[in-house]
Amino acid sequence: MSAALAQADIPAPAPREDGPEERLARWTAGYAALPGLPDELLAPDGSRRPAWDRFLRRLAGLPDAEIAARLAAAGRHIHETGIAYRAYGEATERDWPIGALPLLIEGSEWQAIAAGVAQRAELLEAVLTDLYGEGALARAGLLPAAAAAGDPEFLRPLVGVSAPGGRHMHFYAADLARGPDGAWRVLADRTQAPSGAGHALENRLVMARALPEVYGALDVERVASFFQAFRDGLAAAATRAEPRIGLMTSGPYSDTYVEQAVLARYLGFSLVEGDDLLVRDGMVSIRTVAGLKRVDVLWRRVDGDFVDPLELNPASRLGAPGLVEALRTGVVAMGNMPGTGLVESAWLTASLPALCERLLGESLRLPGLPTWWCGDPVQRDAVMERFDFLAFRPAAAPAQGAFTSRAFGEGRDAAETARLRAVLRDRPGDLVAHEPVRLSTAPVWDGTRLVPRPFVLRVFAAATPDGWQVMPGGFCRISETPDVRPVAMGAGVRAADVWVLSASPVAAQASLLPPSDRVTVRRVPGLLPSRAADNLFWLGRHLERAEAVIRLTACFLDGAGAVSMATEDRATSARIRALLHAWGAVPSAEGPAAALAHHALSDGGQWGSGLAHALSARRNAASLRERLSGEAWRALWALRAVLEAPAEGLDSEAALLDRAERALSLTAALAGLAQENMNRAGGFAFVDMGRRVERAVNACRFALEFGAAGASTDDLGVLLDLVDSRISYGARYILGVALAPVRDMVLLDPYNPRSLAFQVERLAERLAVLPSLRQDGVAELPVRLVAGLSGEIAAAEAATLPLGTVADWEMRLWEIAEAIGARYFPGGSDAARPENLTTLA
């Protein structure tokens, strides 16, 4: 469950269930704004603002227990469907900490905010056009040329490049807070690769699901039309009528990867990494299992300097060589263009009011903090007069060689003050000064009542064919402490949905569905990048490996027939122990049965345990978030939870067997989800081939271990259990287990869905429908290998089958897996693939 929802945001039930008025009075008792700061709940005269009064009265109409149950369900939904984030510098993800209360803004106030954000976006676009074009603003002295030219975000290879589609920016965000006078101010401009829109979308989905009556009654503005307009704006930048759009990510270890996957799935974009892209023959293409596919627009979520190691940062492994040249020639459009991070820098803030008058002919509607660039002698003198009352920050982001003072902070010590004064003396252009920030507050739950907490509102704007459009809502970060300095997502910070309340009824339904006359019906495979196919293949392999270990452990605990396999003196038990040890599931083949079973199922430190393989599968799935359903995520989470459960109270063989059986039910559920829910024109073939390869290998290994000449009844019983075929065998043979029939069912029977023969047939079927890159009519290596193996299996007889042949088949299955990998998902720009034989489409 989401930690925020579970611990802080659920109002504690009263000793008795009181009425709405009593409930509301209890929630708001003692609520007061912090001294000298505006508050969202309270108007300046201390009364409740109308929007909040309407919201709280609606919410108070629900009993405390009902609210608690709904928010707890929302927390489970967040956890089980993988809605998460990674704080900067952390290796693991955290559940998304959404708060129970939205931030409410009246429609009339929002109109002023939206107009100001749109104006600011247009202003920054004009500044970028000049900085990467004529440079007239610097020549006129309207902005400091030295600061711009020395900024690390000023990317010289982009100077003179006409932005494809006519815009440097397609997406903009501004971080807002109320000033002491209650007016909104801009704390920061986000132009590099603005994040948070996906989380704003998730916040909306979670809150609308948790409080549908309240959400519907307040006429909250919908956000779907904003995303539709943004998608149309990107498409308009392309030269083709039906462009292919990719969201360019730095990969699953990006702090905002989950959000990027949400947006890619919602908008219908291909989520691509730098290694997925290839610039060749004047085109930018995505490496897919069907060869190269042209991409027309890239929505960049990689820092601009990392886009192209050829012309920008040579150490980058996140971009693709040649992308800058592709932008230069106009064959691909990019939102936002590399170099747009330049106008995030603090040195520009002091110049924006004058620039707005010059470029747009109007006053700046949403001012920033009062700011002074210390490289200007006049501004520096003003700063020195107020030195003790100002905060300092690097003029450029990131600063190079500049003293780094707290961007938003007070209480400098003597050493920091001395160093700061030295920089102001020697390199004043490296710093800007601004008035310290003290954030206004909004109400949150502290467990029993409402309390004021500081917040920052991020508002998004998209460039559309009709101009800038602002999302009616946004992304709100709220601190869990009274500290009024600006906050970033991490420990002690939660998110909140942003509800813009319309003065008129809002249409009940809005979506991204385009008009039917704009869509041509197709029945073709979706775009599947080679990297995604690789992860799908290994997702299937790890899940099958987990199942094999779990099934082997269950046999060890349950035994064959009525005889327990968990005893020390059984040869069959010894073979199971040895196989678990060889697979890396247990540290030793010796020891008590329960201890070994616990290692095999739940010891994440054992590289071959069921839990280790389940975690590996989840890591592969983490790179496929845009392709997996919520049900699949829940099943993956549940599998991990079952295997990861603490050992206390589960150290008996019976309890461990129950754990194994529950885990097997979940692996079956995951296989069923893939079988029944994945489109056959998408990635299903690769998930299925991964499972088939591993299941075929396991069938061979099990036959070698338990199906040798002289195998006991217990051996053959375990062999049937391991391939889940005991019932089928009993229905076919009434005389009991015998070596040849068991071998036939495990290895050669094409009708048994667990046999080797069945897996090889399915591999042949999957390969047959995958695209071929060759034009010579010759079957590719994976197809040839599978066909050869299939023929040998079809011709074999169980009674005379040498185990050496089975061992050879096992090795050839590994060879097939390697051939599939080499054919469909090689990585890197120098990958050996016949890409030049494909047609760009």
From TrEMBL:
Q: Which top-rank group of organisms is this from?
A: Bacteria
Where the record annotates domain DUF403, the positions are: 528-825
In this chain, the stretch annotated as Disordered covers: 1-20
Please report the stretch or stretches of sequence annotated as the Circularly permuted ATP-grasp type domain. 102-478
Q: Where is the composition biased (Low complexity)?
A: 1-11
User: What Pfam families would the database entry show?
Assistant: Alpha-E (PF04168), CP_ATPgrasp_2 (PF14403)
Q: Which InterPro entries match?
A: ATP-dep_Glu-Cys_Ligase-2 (IPR051680), CP_ATPgrasp_2 (IPR025841), DUF403 (IPR007296)
What name appears for this protein in its UniProt entry?
Answer: DUF403 domain-containing protein
